[in-house]
Every structure is written in C-alpha cells, then in structure tokens.
Amino acid sequence: MKDKQKALLLIVCLLIFFPLARSFRKKEEMPQNSDANTSSVEIIVYNTRENVIKRINLEEYIVGVVAAEMPASFSSEALKAQAIAARTYALGRAVEKYGNTRINHFGAHVCTNPAHCQAWIPKELYQTWYPKSDVDKNWAKIEQAAYETSGLILTYDGEIINPLYHANSGGITEDVQEVWSSVNSVPYLQSVFSEGESDYSSFEKKVVFKGEEIREKLMKVYPDIVFMGSISEDMEIIQYTNSQRVKEIRVGSITVPGTKFREIFSLASTQIEINFPADDEIEIVTYGFGHGVGMSQCGANELAQKGKDYDYILKYYYTGVEIEPLSDEIVLKFGN
Questions:
Q1: 131: buried, middle or exposed (CB in 10 Å: 19+, 13-18, 0-12)?
Q2: Are residues 167 and 296 in contact, defined by beta-carbon separation less than 8 angstroms?
Q3: In the Cβ-directed half-sphere of 143, how many Cα atoms lie within 13 Å?
C-alpha cells in the first residue's frame, strides 16, 4: 500500500513540476525585444525649455516623449504603439535619414519642441503638465509601455521609417504628399479610416473671425491680395483632398493652399467647414487635430480599447511596415 502511495505521489509531482519547469525554461529562452546594445544607447537631446544639450539613455528619453505626447489614461497598447513610433522617429533623425536635424539643434539629434520634433518632459515636470494626475502611477504605466517595447522600431523594406503621428484625424488620416507637397507618395503614409475619434475633445473646434482680421492676417503673407467685398463674398473652398481636407481655398484675388491657410489662422486641422454668421464674419469649424498624417493617437486608443495590440495598431496606420529590434548598424551610425 505504501509503495502505491509513493508511486502516486511521484506521478503527481511529475505532473505538476515538469510542465512548470518547462514553462520557466521557455520564458528564459524567449528572445527579448531589444538586442544586447540597446541598454547602452544614448540620444543627444536639445532641451528647448532649459536651452541645454545633454545625452539621455534612449529608453528614458522615450518614456519622457510618451509622457508628453500621449495621455497616460490611454490604453497600454496605445502607449506601446506611441513608444515604438517615438523611438523610430528619434532614431530616424539621429542617423539623419530624415533631414540633417543637427544643424537646427546645435549638434543634437532631436529637440523637445513638438512643433519641430517630439515633445519631451522629465518626471519632475509631469505634475505641472497634468496637475490632477497621480504622477507615480501614471509614470509607472508609461515606463512599462516603453520598457516592454524596448529597442523595437518600425521599418519598411528593411529601412527605418518616418513615423509621423498626430492627435486626432477627424475620422480619416491624410496622404503625406497632400501636406508636404515636396514629398513624393510614401507607401506607409497613406490615408486610412480611423473610427471612434468623435468622442475626444480634440475632434471638433470652432473659431470666429471678423472680416477685418481675416484681411489683415492674409495681407501680411500676401501683400498683393485684392479683396472684392465682404468676407462671405471673398472666401470659397474650391478643392478638397481625397480625405476631405481643404486642398485650396480662394480668398479675394488669390488661391491659398489649405495647409497654408491652417498655418496663417492657427487652425486645428485642414478638415474645414466655413459658415458666415454675418456678411463680414466667418465661423470656421475644424475636425481633428494636427496634420493628419500617419498614426492618429486617439484612433490608436480606440483600437486598443477594442482589444487590438500595438502590433495591429502600428500596422494599421503605417501600411506594410514591420516591427523589428534596433540593429547594431543603426546604433553605429550615430556613434553610440
């Protein structure tokens, strides 16, 4: 009887511990996201707030970018997608594949001005940006998203991509060549539908201008412009892009590109509707926030909330890309 009990106990132990041991071994054998070099990679950052240049560990830098660029309230998979996009963006500029940015950064790879590069904040400034937030909890969530994707970048045909992104697409993203006319069509930066973004505060904005203000701003840029009458007579959208953004708008005697019109009047996007509350007054309604090219951050969060992971999100917004570990070749290109 005792021999039978011992045999039964041995079988139970084998059933429990053998699979457990195999599980531990598999975890140890699983490849990590980053290769052996990523822990020592540093990026040179020009901090425009403090007017200083310093080297920062790449992954620590990515944490600060995600903290500045995407709300911590967004789903973890959206934060991971943002981390990979931000890492790819920074490294693409560090190796000078997308312009010689060091000229504008006093020798640094990137700056912290979001109008030029990517926003970035250290943990000690997080509370000032988000005064009602739980700093430690949110920062830990952002760190997890960055470190769980450590070393991963986006490539197309084996080359690091230019992963442009924006806050809200207004329901559909834009083809890159419609925003930057000097850029040829880029396969991974083409228009895609982006559902669920209307629930975000960045989806719709309204501004009202008097005709006098419109004329004054335009004359600074186009001194030869001639106005025919009231603003309701002088303004007309004459062409849209395929994503229904304004491509050209006629104002008085000239035609203004939609992107330039957005810049002059500091509009949220080029998805524009115009109304005339009075003859010499205009209401401009914009949908979405940003240039509209590449990944929509609100759209990424919507996909994450529907159960999609960062791999799906990134490949949805950047058509045809691959997610790969940072290579030794890229590290060597910028001297780390």
A1: exposed
A2: yes
A3: 9
Instruction: Order across the sheet with 204-210: list the strands.
Output: 204-210, 281-287, 272-278
The whole-angstrom separation of Cα 95 and Cα 225 is 43
Q: Which residues pair with 275 in a beta bridge?
A: 283
In this prediction the pTM is: 0.86
**Token output for 171:** 């329901």
- 148-183 confidence digits (pLDDT tens): 999 999 999 999 999 999 999 999 999 999 999 888
- Segments of 112-262 assigned E as strands: 152-156, 159-160, 165-166, 204-210, 235-240, 246-251, 254-257
User: In degrees, to the nearest 5, what angle opens at C-alpha 312 toward C-alphas 161 and 302?
Assistant: 110
Q: Which has the closest alpha carbon to 284: 307, 260, 268, 303?
A: 268
- Distance of CA 277 to CAs 176, 213, 246, 251, 269, Å? 34, 15, 21, 17, 21
C-alpha span between 249 and 252 (Å, rounded) = 10
